[in-house]
């Protein structure tokens, strides 16, 4: 059985799409394919003008740089401050470091962590750490944000805050978002929800927005 099989899906630019389904249904694999973390064995994935499935190494690296990722496990570097964690995706890129630091501080402020740039992850709550992870995902000005169970390690109240934040960022910046979640309440707050089972889409419904 393929992890993702016979998926025919079009996602409108600027929309928020929820992927739902039980563990093993193919949600994470589909996100990984969209983000070029994994390569498809067959079929075509096109994001904007980029045909991801046919892209060569250089073009694929450029594409990955245009995608932001938020994961269930925050994947913050414990020895780095909040600001430096946000800046981590830019370490391999040339640029004005002072301007990048200012941008990181702007993003920390946007996610509600203004003034906490020098804090270590161990000094912050789980919800605050996930906010850092969201700011890190935004530092490269992505056109596509992929979130894999972004509230999975959070209590329900904090999880709702994180989803509300993602939706507010979508409304402000217009980036396309795909959020994989087990939580049907989260799915209902998105513009559209896709349910998956055994690697296939079994329903496609409009959300509550």
Question: Residue share in helices?
Answer: 25-40%
CATH hierarchy: architecture of the largest domain? 3-Layer(aba) Sandwich
**CATH class category of the largest domain:** Alpha Beta
Average pLDDT, rounded to a whole number, is: 90
The fraction of residues in strands falls at 15-25%
Low-confidence stretches: none
Query: Could you state the order of secondary-structure elements as H and E?
Result: EHEEHEHHHEHEHEE
Radius of gyration: 17 Å
The description of the largest β-sheet is: 6 strands, mixed
Q: Strand order across the biggest sheet?
A: 4-5-6-1-7-8
Oligomer: single chain
Shape: globular
Give a verbal description of the structure:
With 209 residues, this protein is α/β, with parallel strands linked by helices. The chain folds into two domains: 1-66 and 142-209, P-loop containing nucleotide triphosphate hydrolases (Rossmann fold), CATH 3.40.50; 78-139. It has seven helices and eight strands, in the order E-H-E-E-H-E-H-H-H-E-H-E-H-E-E. The strands form two sheets. Strands 4-5-6-1-7-8 form a six-stranded mixed beta sheet. Strands 2-3 form a two-stranded antiparallel ribbon. A hairpin with a 2-residue loop joins strand 7 (192-197) and strand 8 (200-206). Helix 4 crosses helix 5 (126-138). It is globular and about 45 Å long. The protein starts with 15 loop residues before the first strand and ends with a strand.
């Amino acid at each position: 059985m393929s992890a993702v099989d016979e998926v025919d899906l079009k996602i409108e630019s600027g929309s928020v799409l929820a992927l739902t389904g039980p563990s093993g249904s193919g949600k994470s694999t589909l996100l990984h394919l969209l983000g070029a973390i994994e390569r498809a064995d067959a079929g075509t994935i096109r994001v904007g003008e980029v045909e991801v499935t046919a892209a060569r190494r250089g073009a694929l690296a450029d594409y990955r740089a245009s995608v932001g990722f938020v994961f269930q496990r925050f994947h913050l570097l414990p020895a780095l401050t909040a600001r430096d964690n946000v800046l981590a995706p830019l370490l391999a890129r040339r640029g004005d470091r002072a301007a990048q630091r200012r941008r990181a501080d702007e993003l920390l402020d946007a996610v509600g962590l203004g003034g906490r740039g020098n804090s270590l992850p161990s000094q912050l709550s789980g919800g605050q750490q996930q906010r850092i992870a969201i700011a890190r995902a935004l530092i490269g000005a992505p056109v596509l944000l992929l979130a894999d169970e972004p509230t999975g390690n959070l209590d329900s109240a904090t999880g709702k805050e994180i989803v509300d934040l993602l939706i507010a960022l979508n409304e402000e910046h217009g980036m396309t978002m795909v959020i994989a979640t087990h939580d049907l309440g989260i799915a209902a707050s998105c513009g559209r929800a896709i349910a998956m089972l055994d690697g296939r889409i079994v329903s496609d419904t409009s959300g509550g927005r």
